[in-house]
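Subject: sequence -> structure tokens, single chain

Hey, anyone have a minute? Need the predicted structure for the following. Not urgent.
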Amino acid sequence: MRVAHVLRRLSFDDWGGTEQVVWNLARAQVRAGHEVRVFATTALCPTPRETREGLEILRFPPVYPWWPMTAATRARLDRKGGNPFVPGLARALREWAPDVIHCHAMGRIAELCIRVAETTGARCAVSLHGGGANVPAAEAASLRAPTRRLLPWGKILDKALRRTRRIPEDAGGIVCVGEDEADLWRARHPRVLFLPNGVDVALFEPKPSDHPTIRPSDHPTILCVARIDRQKNQMALVEALARDPRLAVRLVGPATEPDYLEALRTRAAELGAADRLSVAGALPPGSPELAAEYRAADVFALPSRHEPFGIVVLEAWAAGLPVVASNVGGLGRLCAAHPGAALVFDPADPSALSAALSRVLADPALAASLAAAGRAAARDYDWTALAARLSDFYETLPKGANRHG
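Reply:
Had a minute. Here:
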């Protein structure tokens, strides 16, 4: 089977959850004997064409349909949002002629993928990675903030070209990483797959041959691996530093909202805890450096305001870390599906995260129990098995005219 994965951006130096899912699924599909290519924009990575681990990646410059467009605005949209046009992408897809076009973006990129599938006879699936069923109004507003006072000339072009596909309704199938999202769409579409995120257990699990890891702090270290973004709510961890002077917090991930990173540092300084907050930035997926961050920590915490799944929890489980996580959306359901593998808390309660962290640090037996249950849970999310489920789903999709009505 020839599979085209299409996503908004793919930069190995600035990684996010969507990119991680696409890359690992694509690698697993190649191992299963499928022919796979990845198509993206040049956002955050100007390299138009490269091959990694036998996977060819093609990138096309995005055109953000807003006026005026400054360099600063473009940089913000490269990181998050923008709903771009992508000239050259449709032609590249038609020339390669995949059997399946699997789109991991929304808006104009998804509409383009559906149109190409309709004209070439390809099957088409759209993945929902962002947890739209759970996005709070304030978070949705933050996505629109960079273009709030700009002229949306793209809408005029959309109307002129009669781009009217409904996203994701007009795709042949919908893939959801969160159960909440899947439940929502099953009532509205005949072909919906709940496909949780996965993990490479062998990469993260501790090995007897591992060398001692240099710790980022002498304090008990709370690790959070996530893009630095208001959705991920790292501010709750900074506030926890003031409540417990024993703690240190280590943040790993790209700053998709640089002003939020600055706010985190400013607040830590106000609390007198600047020396207990460290930021590693983005680390390559599957890298020894990323695995070392997990090995160096004492507890993993993900305090997201909303979360369709929480792939980093799987990594923490595989690494044998006790996990503390927000009881929200797909993340809460993931933890509930594996009782004893995580402590969950209400992110609306300012003291709940600190209380959960204190429980784990004060009770070595509880920490060991959480870690053992997490290691067992991680084995249920092998990428190879998930990729096989996805390929079976592709076979159920209609060819060509993907509208399901």
